[in-house]
C-alpha cells in the first residue's frame, strides 16, 4: 500500500523527468512512517533521490521526494535564489533550502506557495500563482500555468504517461528501487 502510493505520486521524479513530488502519506504509527521514509532514503539516495517528511501530523506525513541534483540545477537558474531569499531562504544548496522549507512547515499550518520552485515548476508560473492568488491562470495540470501553456501541457502529458507506465510496472511486481532511474 505505501509503496504503491509512493510510486503513483512520485513516478515522474523516480523516472528523472521531474525535480520533485509532494504527497500525503497516511500512517498508523509515526515510528513505522519514519522507518519507511528512512528505508526509502537508504534505497534511493544512491540514485540521487531523497525522501523527507516536510510535516508530520498525528496520522499523516507530507512527503517530499526529490532529486538533489535537479534541485541544485533549479537553484542555480537565474532569479531563483533571489526569489527564494525574499521568502526567507538564506542557505544556498539543496540541503539548506530543504531544511529551511521544513522549518517553514514546522512553524505554520500555512502552505508556503514558493514550494513550487522545489517541485521544479517554472519560476514565472510560481510567481504568477502567488501574484494572482491562484486565479487567472492559462491552464491547470500539475501546477497552475501563467506563462508557457504549450510547454506545460507537454510536460503534464509526459508526467501522466509516466504515472500510467509506472503503475503498470508496479502491478507486474517492480519495486520503488527497481523503478528509480539513476541520472
TrEMBL record:
Superkingdom of origin: Bacteria
InterPro entries per record: DUF3793
Record's protein name: DUF3793 family protein
Species, as recorded: Guopingia tenuis
Amino acid at each position: 500500500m505505501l509503496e504503491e502510493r509512493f510510486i503513483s505520486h512520485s513516478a515522474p521524479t523516480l523516472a528523472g523527468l521531474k525535480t520533485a513530488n509532494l504527497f500525503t502519506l497516511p500512517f498508523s504509527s509515526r515510528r513505522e512512517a519514519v522507518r519507511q521514509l528512512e528505508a526509502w532514503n537508504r534505497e534511493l539516495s544512491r540514485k540521487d533521490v531523497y525522501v523527507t517528511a516536510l510535516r508530520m501530523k498525528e496520522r499523516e506525513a507530507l512527503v517530499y521526494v526529490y532529486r538533489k541534483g535537479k534541485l541544485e540545477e533549479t537553484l542555480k537558474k537565474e532569479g531563483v535564489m533571489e526569489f527564494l531569499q525574499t521568502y526567507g531562504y538564506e542557505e544556498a544548496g539543496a540541503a539548506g533550502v530543504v531544511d529551511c522549507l521544513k522549518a517553514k512547515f514546522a512553524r505554520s499550518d500555512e502552505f508556503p506557495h514558493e514550494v513550487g520552485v522545489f517541485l521544479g515548476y517554472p519560476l514565472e508560473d510560481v510567481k504568477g500563482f502567488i501574484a494572482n492568488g491562484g486565479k487567472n491562470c492559462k491552464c491547470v495540470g500539475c501546477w497552475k500555468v501563467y506563462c508557457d501553456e504549450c510547454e506545460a501541457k507537454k510536460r503534464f502529458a509526459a508526467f501522466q504517461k509516466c504515472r500510467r507506465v509506472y503503475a503498470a510496472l508496479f502491478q507486474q511486481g517492480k519495486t520503488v528501487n527497481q523503478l528509480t532511474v539513476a541520472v
